[in-house]
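Good day; I would like, with your permission, to put a structural problem before you. I would ask you to consider whether the tokens describe a fold that such a sequence might reasonably adopt. The full record is reproduced below for your convenience:
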Amino acid sequence: MRPLLAVSNAIDALNEKIGYVCNILVLLACLVSAANAMIRYAFSNSSNCWLELQWYMFAILVMFGASYTFKRNEHVRVEIFYLTLSERGQLWLDMIGTLCFLIPSCLLLAYLSWPFFMQAYNVGEMSGNAGGLIRWPIKFVIPAGFVLLALQGVSEVIKRIAALQGYVTIDAKYERPTQ
């Protein structure tokens, strides 16, 4: 179980770092948005590049922030049933839901979105707007985000199995296993 917990800790550390980057992106998106609006209204000058940059940052926040949010147990769940279960029942429900729904869905969406990215990459897709950005890097964010979320799902399953076997207890706030 210890090697699996080491894998879980590595996945958690990766998504924690990605979450930190996403937190910085929130600030950067606000600054770019404010600067773009100020330049547009004060100097009657703007570029589609700034608008697309905001869109790109938001896409990265959503797609990469999902795995960080899942790691921190801040995701949406139907708690009306969940809270009526015992701690052991909650662990089982989390594990079954993650194994049966989250991981397969994420891997399917990553698989289906890969050709979307590859097509854009192969043709060197650019924005159709004057002054716009290249599009293929942001299209890579879609499969990458789903893979990161699936990986975090694997980490959560490992932690649940370890908790069910008594190796660790789960810190309810941050989903960190404690030994």
About this structure: Residues 2-43 form the longest helix (42 residues). The two ends are 12 Å apart (CA to CA). Helices lie at 2-43, 48-71, 79-82, 87-123, 136-164. The first strand starts at residue 169 and ends at 170.
